[in-house]
Design a protein that fits this description.
The chain has 117 residues and is mainly β. The chain is 0% helix and 53% strand.
């Protein structure tokens, strides 16, 4: 059974930083594509960043240069470092893992990030 548990969300002032963690079990993070998504009420969930098993990363334009996805293979954990946060980054952030055909099939429960102006 695949389980993803996010942590690290919170309330921060604009310009501040947070680090989100996603601890995985039942799936080896280095063997699949891992992603971070975010969602605000009334809007579709959007991909923020993803990391392939090769280590290649992709970011949505609005977070390039501010957010960094990384992983610790020994801890089977994926991180999302959020720097220079803006109020528009406020959302519930979700961790996701791909299945054997590359689709994001497994999801965590989400962690709230709130950026105050």
């Amino acid at each position: 059974q695949v389980r993803l548990v996010e942590s690290g969300g919170g309330v921060v002032q604009a310009g501040g930083s947070l680090r989100l963690s996603c601890a995985a079990s039942g799936r080896t993070v280095s063997a699949v594509t891992m992603g971070w998504f975010r969602q605000v009420p009334g809007k579709q969930r959007e991909l923020v960043a993803r990391m392939a098993s090769s280590g290649a990363t992709v970011y949505t334009d609005s977070v390039k240069g501010r957010f960094t996805i990384s992983r610790d293979d020994a801890k089977n954990t994926v991180y999302l470092q959020l720097n220079s946060l803006k109020p528009q980054d406020t959302a519930v952030y979700y961790c996701a893992a791909s299945d054997t055909i590359g689709a994001f099939a497994y999801w965590g429960q989400g962690t709230q990030v709130t950026v105050s102006s």
